[in-house]
Amino acid sequence: MNSEMFFAWDDRPDANEHVIGEMHAAAGEPPCTADDEPEPEPTGGQGQPRTIGVVAARRDGALLGWAWVYEDPDHERVARVQAMYVPRQVRRLHTGYYDLLPPTAEEFEMVTGLYRRAADEARAAGYRTLRWGGRDTGPDGQAAIALNAHGHGECARYWSTEPATWQPPAGLPDAQVHQLPAHLTLATAEAEVSAFIDGHAAHINAGESIRHENAEPRALAALIAELVTRLRRDYPEVTELTIWEFDDAAVRQALPLAGLRITGRTMDYDLPLTPS
């Protein structure tokens, strides 16, 4: 039986750097640099926002994850929070990829606990709203339900298909595709797509791993369809392909043409912090 999860607050200005350093040490990685620090959720402000504090989640003294709480530079008395799960971050350090693996029960429990404590501390510091972003079907969305936060402002989508049952859509153009040696990477004269395979799952971060120069959505769809075809043929152990798509109209139009469907959405959430 797992021991209890504990949450501790640290309001030092460099609290975020301390937990990042602890994670690197536990993972056997060299000390972190500025590039390893989590990027704040997009705002119109300039520079790094002011840290309010960090909530650390621990079990038996070991760091499970943390939530960075910082000021929203564009809105008075609004605090933002961003959760990090240590096993997921360590995989990123080792592989160089942000993974899209399904969250564990521990991660669901941790994120809700982190945001609950972050809300208490932000409220005590005089903030009126706690804001975060995340997948509606993931830990961030569950925390929003548990804490009665309001969801709005869809900003990205998760698209999925099961290669074993996926059928090639009719009407796509023929694509002259060649495969590159890096992971599963396919390219045409106009576009390139790479999938990262981890066990039974294949993942694509569209912002990092789909590159195209003025490719028409149907041509891009044909390339993605060829990737699914090769997943089914060459990687029969892969049961699901997931693509995270944002801020790219051509990719957004291509994915349904390639036979993928939306299985989750990245939302913004606002939690009003009424005085206790």
Q: Would you mind describing this structure in some detail?
A:
With 276 residues, this protein is of the alpha+beta class. It folds into two domains: 6-147, Aminopeptidase, CATH 3.40.630; 158-264, Aminopeptidase (3-Layer(aba) Sandwich), CATH 3.40.630. Helix content is 30%, strand content 33%. The chain contains seven helices and 13 strands. The protein has helices spanning 15-26, 86-95, 105-124, 139-147, 206-209, 217-234, 249-257, and strands spanning 6-10, 51-59, 62-71, 78-85, 129-135, 150-161, 178-180, 184-187, 191-198, 201-205, 210-212, 240-245, 261-272. Strands 1, 2, 3, 4, 5, 6, 7, 8, 9, 10, 11, 12 and 13 form a 13-stranded mixed sheet that branches. The longest helix is centred in the middle third of the chain and has 20 residues, at 105-124. The protein is elongated, with a radius of gyration of 20 Å. The two termini are 34 Å apart.
Question: What distinguishing features does this structure have?
Answer:
single chain; 276 residues; alpha+beta; Aminopeptidase; 2 domains; 13-stranded mixed beta sheet; GNAT family N-acetyltransferase
